[in-house]
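hiii so my PI (J.) wants the whole complex modelled not just the main chain, which honestly fair. so below is everything: two entries, each one labled with what it is. i double checked the lines twice but i was tired so who knows lol
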Amino acid sequence: MNESLLRELVPAVIGVLVRRGADFASAEDAVQEALIRALDTWPDDPPRDAKGWLVAVAWRKFLDATRSEASRRGRELAVEAEPPAGPAPATDDTLRLYFLCAHPTLPPASAVALTLRAVGGLTTRQIAAAYLVPEATMAQRISRAKRRIAGLPLDQPGDLATLLRVLYLVYNEGYGGDVDLAAEAIRLTRQLVALTDEPEVAGLLALMLLHHARRASRTGPGGRLVPLREQDRSLWDTVLIAEGVTILQTALARDRLGEYQAQAAIAALHADAPSTAETDWVQIVEWYDELLRLTGSPVVRLNRAVALGEADGARAGLAALADVDPGVPRYAAVAAYLHERAGHVERAAQLYAEAAGAATSVPEQHHLTREAARVRQRLQA
Amino acid sequence: MKYLLLKHYRGGPAPVADMEPIDRWTPADVDAHMQYMRDFAARLEETGEFVDAQALAPEGTFVRSGGEGRPPVTDGPFAETKDLIAGWMVIDVESWDRALELAAELSAAPGAGGVPTDEWLEIRPFLTEAATVTE
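here's the output for the full assembly
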């Protein structure tokens, strides 16, 4: 059985049920049940028409659930026969699902979970395992999210910025359980590119592809984090890089710049360089200026200081760092790097130790602790 | 974001009010205290924020390697002055503020006579497994 094909059908099947008159929450539950049944039975008994099978089973599940609900309330069942599907094309249904699942009223963690289930076709168990919470907790998170968006019209234009942020959150989660969330985020973003005409969606896809292309080089033995300047560039996936660059160029040609396109442009410049020394840092600084103009983000300001340190020397980087709020995450790590390059080894050792204490992930903490130890040894040598 | 809420048998800041040890409470007060914890966990499961909970026995010991081919070296039972962990709860919430709010609610579990214990709980953020791509 092709599990990814099965999962790709999920949003379209939800769309069919909704067009037949089911509410989104019940339709989504019914399709999840049909999906679990399919995962169970298809390996031995594959259907000839996969989508037809899913629609039929999900519709029956929906009717059963509605019927028992109606009998509980002692009411007559209104929907009984299978009404014909409405005229709306399936692509619009899927696009609406994206916007609904990433609705701005939902907390990010709920939007992520609902998107992975309703648009991604993952089971609750897979999502729970990926985010390391019990299945019951994840099930509740999803049903609460659905209650929160119940009654929202499905035909309103959605909030693209929120949707892209949700997809990027999924990408950044990396591997979780038996699901490759980064690959899943790329699949969902790729599908979204086909459904929309927004250069920022293409920009996000390009950014993900360019980051993904370097994934193999980003971790060393035991999951150790390898910084860009030490990465083995022969491990970079040139096919993904070429694809990302092409998608980015097409998006940039539309002349509607946004933060994801700008970030992808920076990633493309890194991907294009044979080494840190041969990287076009001047252009990277220019892109950070654009990005700063677009977002005003203190994180961008911090990363710009790093780039400036490479382009114009560590002192210039430190001067730029003076304008950055020290409360920004990873501030100490960047300060440590720039101070070491400026020859302030003692200060760098202190800052690396401080940065390790402020790290929010295990690989980052490990990496920064090693850096602190390395600089400390330099001091003693 | 995941947070660990740690409950201590002893240790931590001085209690706000003198509290009888739990073995001096009435059985009904003990039951009410336990029920409060269970209800709290059940409510968090419903809000999609519960991850794990575990109570620990007060007995235990410190242990370390005694060197290759030698038996483990123990140091115990714990000294009366040692900070002693009673159990934990792990929650997965949207923000630090929400984590504080929930911890405070848990700390208000009823004690002797149904008066909230308002005991100190320790709260610690989890380090995540995934490092965000930062280059």
